[in-house]
Amino acid sequence: MRIMGLLTAFLLLAACASVAEYRIEDSLRDIGIAPNRADCMAEQLRDRLDSDQLNELADFLSSLTRADSTGEGVDVLLDIENPGIVGAVLKSGISCGFSPSR
What we know:
Layout: H1 2-30, H2 35-48, H3 51-62, H4 70-77, H5 83-98
Helix pairs in contact: 1-2, 1-3, 2-5
């Protein structure tokens, strides 16, 4: 019974992270980041951030408007007041920017 409760809790947590990842991916595209880079960044952010940070980032992104360029979109992301999230955004942006398959 205890294992079933732990499994259920884990699945709910994973589902929340997946929803946040999709919200992040869509919001990155909405602010002007190229679709393939947005996909890459969302995937890497999922791996770099915990579920609370993912939700914080998703909430922040949902309040933004479209940027005129990818660079401007990344600049807007740096306005987040959580240094851990900013660091993860920078790392994923750089990594995805130089990835040959992106």
